[in-house]
Design brief:
- This protein is an alpha+beta fold.
- The chain is 46% helix and 13% strand.
- It contains 13 helices and ten strands.
- A five-stranded antiparallel beta sheet has the order 1-2-3-5-4, with helices on both faces. A three-stranded antiparallel beta sheet has the order 6-8-9, with helices on one face.
- Helix 4 packs antiparallel against helix 8, helix 4 runs parallel beside helix 9 and helix 5 runs parallel beside helix 11.
- The radius of gyration is 22 Å and the shape is globular.
Length: 372
């Protein structure tokens, strides 16, 4: 950090109710959304660390609502852990640190919103899901997170990104992009468009289920990737679900879908060689077995039956969004080369096709899961 940046972050930190002497502050991580810093304070001879984040106003139009949602969820989880008499609660859920004026965010003179968390110590994260045991633990952790929040009775959370997983809206945006074709790219991607249009109605299953009431509205995380779980360094046990910026109302199948999409793909999200892109059924089986062990107490039979469709639908919505952005000239997703979004979309489509080729195996597993 240069001197001006250092002064800015020090001024921000001084607004939060943290006692002790500030020892250091450094940028943390390489996130693409928020700017993150980690500070260290000397509190009576004990070194205590905090995480400070500037919330991206381009992604989150009402950052105060983002923080309010996080407070509602973490307060509820904390009370849930207390009732069970669990220890180490500050490592099991994120802890927001209030400002000196009592607010949970600071609005700086430039109009930026900042928040502060207690840093969770002695934990690790994983970027690569390289075993079925890790898949089972991921599923179990997401299932437990949803299970606890299933009994939430507080005020409805804010829709911080309205229509985030609304397939009807995403196809409307694709239709508009095709009609305008600002970069003249439509003619070269007919195979991809044909596939997505043929699957248009099937992909509406989650959106239509919510609208009709067949699927219940609950609290969803909306980014259930492996690297959003903190694991204890000593025991290896999953401790804490993080990155709660997108917690908001929705069907729990949004989360299972994203979990399936990101965990079962044998290749990178932007793999050019589509022969490497397959749906890993063994990972899926471990993932859903772990998930169902925790979620079976609150899932309906219909929700359980739709677990495979959730993975397919969220994969499809990502293909639609990526292809839409490619047609529009790559205005939303960051790209590293000219056809990056097209490569991403093709990978998602290849994953859907691989799912379809194993659909009988997938549905038989879910049938057995329900029977037991």
């Amino acid at each position: 950090m240069n001197a001006a940046q250092e002064k800015e972050i020090f001024d921000v930190i001084s607004q939060f109710a943290i006692y002790g002497d500030l020892v250091s502050c450094k940028p943390l991580g390489n996130g693409h959304i928020n700017s993150t810093f980690r500070s260290t304070f000397n509190q009576g001879g004990t070194q205590v660390r905090y995480t400070h984040q500037r919330i991206n106003k381009e992604v989150f139009k009402q950052p105060d609502q983002v923080v309010a949602n996080i407070a509602s969820v973490t307060d509820f989880l904390r009370e849930s852990y207390r009732r069970e008499g669990l220890e180490d609660i500050s490592r099991r859920t994120l802890t927001l640190v209030p400002c000196k004026d009592g607010k949970l965010f600071y609005l700086d003179p430039a109009g930026n919103y900042w928040r502060t968390y207690l840093f969770v110590e002695n934990v690790t994260t994983y970027e690569i899901l390289d075993s079925t045991s890790l898949a089972e633990q991921l599923g179990r952790t997401v299932g437990e997170f949803q299970n606890r929040l299933a009994s939430y009775k507080g005020p409805r959370l804010h829709d911080t990104i309205p229509h985030f997983h609304d397939m009807h809206l995403r196809y409307q945006q694709l239709d508009q992009a095709i009609a305008s074709d600002p970069k003249g790219r439509v003619a070269s991607i007919q195979a991809e468009l044909d596939f997505l249009m043929q699957n248009r109605q099937r992909g509406m299953v989650l959106s239509d289920g919510l609208a009709s009431g067949q699927l219940r509205e609950g609290i969803t995380h909306n980014d259930t990737k492996l690297n959003n779980i903190l694991f204890d360094q000593e025991t290896g046990a999953a401790l804490c679900v993080i990155d709660l910026d997108t917690v908001m109302p929705g069907t729990v199948l949004f989360d299972t879908g994203d979990m399936i999409r990101t965990a079962t793909n044998t290749a990178a999200e932007d793999e050019r060689d589509l022969s490497k892109v397959t749906f890993n059924f063994n990972v899926f089986r471990a993932l859903i077995s772990g998930y169902h062990s925790q979620a079976c107490t609150f899932l309906t039979d219909y929700e359980t039956k739709l677990l495979p469709e959730s993975g397919r639908a969220i994969t499809q919505i990502m293909a639609v969004r990526m292809l839409t952005d490619y047609i529009n000239g790559d205005v939303y997703y960051h790209i590293d080369y000219p056809d990056h979004n097209l490569v991403r979309a093709r990978t998602q489509i290849a994953l859907m096709k691989s799912m379809d080729s194993q659909w009988d195996l997938i549905t038989a597993f879910i049938h057995d899961l329900q029977a037991n």
